[in-house]
Amino acid sequence: MEQSAQQAQQLDHLASAPPFPGASSESPFAAFGMPGFGGAASVAPPEPRPILELEGEEYENELDALSDWVDDFLLPVYGAEVTTATPWCLRWQDHDDVVAWLHALWLAYQQHKDPEAGLSGLFVWHRDFLTHAIAAIRAPGGPLSACMTSPDRPAHRVLPGPPRSARTKQATDTEPSEAGEMPGPAS
For residue 91, which of 2, 180, 155 has the smallest C-alpha distance? Predict the structure, then answer.
């Protein structure tokens, strides 16, 4: 135990020692980005946020970048023919659920095309993300099912979502009693 403690002290001393005369002032460990060994501490990139959590100009900028990726990369490569089995919408940006799906797909694409993802990164993206997202977005009963099903007949219609739950509707429709309490469950 004592020998391990001495070795740890020696390593700490060597790591903080000034460079040898005539040697480079940069630590030999700097290239590895190792804090405590003369390397710069790596700064984590900002956490990506789901597009539907963004507002105003930040949302518009992200939607513009997403639209460029969808129009310039995704659709030319993976945008199979528009049919009743695979509908599409030229105004897909009006469908919040489609925007959320495509944004998540785009974030995953950026992560998996990065060299750190390794040689199989894009295969993983195809297998785990692309196939599932496109199947959900373009399903016959999916979010675009009321839109274009034929390139010769462009159409756009946002289908209404399900109504609020009965419990939520009851709570918002009923005024609180004079005692300031909400009505409880019926007995």
Answer: 155
